[in-house]
Prior knowledge:
Bound molecules: guanosine-5'-diphosphate, magnesium ion
Family: Belongs to the small GTPase superfamily. Rab family.
GO cellular component, one term: endomembrane system
Largest sheet: 6 strands, mixed
Helix content: 25-40%
Subcellular location: Endomembrane system
Membrane topology: Lipid-anchor
Number of helices: 6
Number of strands: 6
Distance between the termini: 15 Å
Strand content: 15-25%
Shape: globular
GO molecular function: GTP binding; GTPase activity
Amino acid sequence: QSDLEEGIDYMFKIVMIGDSGVGKSQLLSRYARNEFNAKSKATIGVEFQTKTVVMDHKVVRAQIWDTAGQERYQAITTAYYRGAIGALLVYDITRQDTFDHVETWLEELQMHADKNVTVMLVGNKCDLGSMRVVPVEVAKEFAQKHNLFFMETSALDCTNVEQAFLGLLSQIYLTIR
Ligand code: GDP
Ligand code: MG
């Protein structure tokens, strides 16, 4: 709550995590700016995007952090996770390895973020159904077992993008109020 601004009731720090190439940056730019394939690397120095939503008559500002590709080298710093109350943990439904690594991401998150961190597991690129290798049921079961919320999305065609972020924000809201 360092960023106290007039009219903001709550500030939630959210982190985007998951393997490189799964679509974290595209999901965030789709949600925050409704853009896909924007030259997001032009925003060098910007570590997060903000989105303000109203829920239950309260103004909630989400500060959503994205990596600058450090996940490629397992080089995400503890500062990235510090104070995070929610995470979008993204895998690619067409790449098994990205789903296999979800458990490792969870461990890393639980080690560094708020201990009550709320997680939305996101199977991205659902527009590529013909190339799917991770069945919905397997992901759903995994999510249930680990107490995660779950959704499949496409940053390309917009499927469930808003729902995934809003779902996460409202679950966080339920846990803190
Ligand atoms: P990041 O490394 O996790 O941030 O992944 P990016 O957002 O940079 O996306 C990696 C690649 O996947 C890029 O070529 C994107 O255009 C592509 N991509 C991201 N989201 C989707 C999606 O929903 N559907 C499809 N078909 N491609 C996507
Ligand atoms: Mg990225």
